[in-house]
Amino acid sequence: PLPSRVTLVEVGPRDGLQNEKQPVAAAHKIALVHALQGAGLREIEVTSFVSPKWVPQMADNAEVMAGITRQPGVRYSVLTPNLKGWEAAVATRPDEIVVFGAASEAFSQRNINCSIAESIERFAPVVQAARAAGVKVRAAISCAVGCPYEGDIAPERVELVARLMSGIGVQHVGVADTIGVGTPRRVQAALEAALRHFPIDEVSGHFHDTYGMALANVYASLELGIHTFDTSVSGLGGCPYAKGATGNVATEDVVYLLQGLGIDTGIDLDALIDAGAAIRAVLGQPNGSRVARALLAR
Ligand code: HMG
Ligand code: MG
């Protein structure tokens, strides 16, 4: 049987906006977070504490975190690639941090400027500091099925990185199809590799929709019992170090799928569609959610 309840981690404010070329004012990012929590999202990835030279769009990280009116029951997470990022992040009181590694050496170099082994060495003190402060630690494993530089990635590579992440005390691992090339059986194999080192409650799927496979991959994950997914409202986004990659699967589309399957998410689809339409209006862009487009056209 499929899971009866699914948790969606909204990554639109971070993964969705990090690649945006035009500056997006902190006030719009804060309004987006407010709209998302109003729609029932209970986990929101807000921003990244990364180098502003690498990702200028996230340079307002502290301002955005400070501007959010926190809603009880909502968990706010941020990306922290190193101790410098952690130190800046902890001052803003995140509920959770995300360290981000890769199953591909080439992507690790391009994205965080170090090898996989070096990344684990950098993450270890971050994980230790966060756990000592009572902050939960998630890890993302990028390029878990395919890499823009190396091509197909074998599940063994995911297993290795999941084992290393578990070894340094990471509590949850997100299996990320960064460039959206995955198809259901390959995505299942990557998830199964992560499941050798983390329990089912602590493995999530993070699927970009470049090839239109993300919803199929969500369904394939549900078949394994995976019940946590990163999604992005209106399909916002892309990764600056994965050229041509589109945004994550749209939150609206996943909510519609889950509603159709009778799976509870606690999310109000109409309010969610309004949140996505509002940020797309700010950006002057068409809505990337098929469900939002269909329902807004009625
Ligand atoms: P580096 O250049 O190797 O770092 O970058 P460094 O330690 O040598 O420091 C160089 C400079 O950066 C110094 O400044 C540091 O202070 C500064 P300078 O002295 O030259 O003025 N610096 C920082 N500034 C602010 N915050 C920090 C920080 N660290 C160093 N935390 C680094 C290494 C990791 C920092 C860099 O490569 C970086 O910022 N990369 C960002 C990558 C990124 O954000 N990618 C997108 C997010 S990941 C993603 O989207 C994938 C995901 O969605 C899953 C998926 O889909 O696959 C999660
Ligand atoms: Mg991503």
Folded structure, characterized:
There is one protein chain. The chain is globular and about 50 Å long. It is built from twelve helices and ten strands. It has helices spanning 12-16, 26-38, 61-67, 83-90, 105-112, 116-132, 155-167, 184-195, 214-224, 251-260, 269-283, 290-296; strands spanning 7-10, 43-48, 75-79, 96-102, 136-142, 146-147, 151-152, 172-177, 203-207, 228-231. Helix 8 packs across helix 9 and helix 10 (251-260) runs antiparallel to helix 11 (269-283). The relative contact order is 0.15. It is of the alpha/beta class. The longest helix has 17 residues, at 116-132. The chain has an eight-stranded parallel beta barrel, surrounded by eight helices. Strands 6-7 form a two-stranded antiparallel ribbon. Bound molecules: 3-hydroxy-3-methylglutaryl-coenzyme A and magnesium ion. Residues 15, 176, 178, 206, 208, 239 line the site of magnesium ion. Pathway: Metabolic intermediate metabolism; (S)-3-hydroxy-3-methylglutaryl-CoA degradation; acetoacetate from (S)-3-hydroxy-3-methylglutaryl-CoA: step 1/1. Residues 6-273 form the Pyruvate carboxyltransferase domain.
What are the key terms here?
298 residues; alpha/beta; eight-stranded parallel β-barrel; two-stranded antiparallel ribbon; 10 strands; 16% strand; globular; binds 3-hydroxy-3-methylglutaryl-coenzyme A; binds magnesium ion; HMGL
